[in-house]
Amino acid sequence: MVDKVANMENRNSEEIERLNAQSCFMRAFFNGHLVHPSIPRDNLQAIADIGTGTGVWMEEVQQEFETTNVGRNVQFTGFDITGTLFPHQKRPGQAFVVHDAVQPFPDEYHEKFDLVHIRFLSYSIKARQLEDLVEWVSEILRPGGYLQWEEIDAIDAWTIPETSTAKQIIYWLVKERLAKGLAPAATTPTVKALQSRKIEVEDGEVNPMCWTDDLLRIYHLETLSTYNHPSAEVNSMKYQWTTNFVIPLLQSCASTRSAKAKEPRLPWDVAELLAMEAAKIHELVETMKKGPDPKVGEFEVLMTRIVARKAKIFPQDGPWLGEWHGTEARPESRRMED
User: Fold this and answer.
1) Tell me: the pLDDT tens digits for 325-337?
2) Angle at 28 between CA 24 and CA 32, to 5 degrees
3) Distances in Å between the alpha carbon of 202 and those of 89, 145, 206, 331, 338?
4) 3-state secondary structure the chain
5) Which residues contact 87 (CB under 8 A, 6 or more apart)?
6) Cβ contact 16:88 at 8 Å
7) What is the pTM of this model?
8) 110-125: per-residue pLDDT in tens?
9) What b-and-e string marks burial along 275-284, b requiring 16 or more CB atoms within 10 Å of the CB?
10) What does the mean pLDDT of the chain come to?
């Protein structure tokens, strides 16, 4: 029992270190902008982080706000499906909540947040659950609030020069995503899910955000590459970040096949094939662990950041033009259509 607890603590420690290093890389990758510049900071009072993990993104944003005298009284809430990585000690202004984001949030969080942040959830959310995630996240956004979403897709990775080892890695990552019901690429389905949400606009009312019944309007969509990135920090951390990102996914892929191969009623030839695949994937993991290798090549990736804003509904004869582009008004909630 003691060994089991120690192993769990070691795994948690490794995951915490990996997530913290990932956040450091992402900060450099987006030129230090933890919150996209198009999102006004002065009026952020409550921020949510979905899939928060260690809460490192919230921690860094809070430190940045305090340093720059912006949003000193912002309340941060991190949500995750498990609390195993939550910090033992949280700073004032932080809260951590165990919640599955593809399920409705408790009423206390409805229309509470000015900004909701999501990063890399496509690796844990099935393709059929994406619209559910967008629906429930939309509910916790205040009218006029912002959604910032960052994703990376396995199909948007390559090496220079192209190598057979790199192709095997991409092949297994995509195959595992499909086997788990995940979309091979997340950006397009995410955009479609964001555009699918509607809001009721009654006679005598206007939705000045887009003049339709769209609930969310995409304000900013950018895809950036690690290739020839202007940041020296990104280039120096690129291999280690890629390794830290890819290895856990490959390990999961190998573990799934190893476990499946041991099922007693599985035909022997199928079990043998699964065991061989697991061994091949394990070899790829060990190769990546050794450090930069010409057999692998240097991975380059694309990452996408989406900024969307939730609609506000105004009386047609009211002062909606200035109010919408300003920050004073927070109209009461409107019923969303399915």
Assistant:
1) 654 444 444 444 4
2) 105
3) 47, 21, 8, 14, 16
4) CHHHHHHHHHHHHHHHHHHHHHHHHHHHHCCCCCCCCCCCCCCCCEEEEECCCCCHHHHHHHHHHHHCCCCCCCEEEEEECCCCCCCCCCCCCEEEEECCCCCCCCHHHCCCEEEEEEECHHHCCCHHHHHHHHHHHHHHEEEEEEEEEEEEEEEEEEEECCCHHHHHHHHHHHHHHHHCCCCCCCHHHHHHHHHHCEECCCCCEECCCCCCCECEEEEEEEEEECCCCCCHHHHHHHHHHHHHHHHHHHHHHHHHHHHHHCCCCCCHHHHHHHHHHHHHHHHHHHHHHCCCCCCCCEEEEEEEEEEEEECCCEECCCCHHHHHHCCCCCCCCCCEEC
5) 54, 55, 96
6) no
7) 0.88
8) 999 999 999 998 888 8
9) eebbeebbeb
10) 87
Rg of the chain in Å (alpha carbons): 22
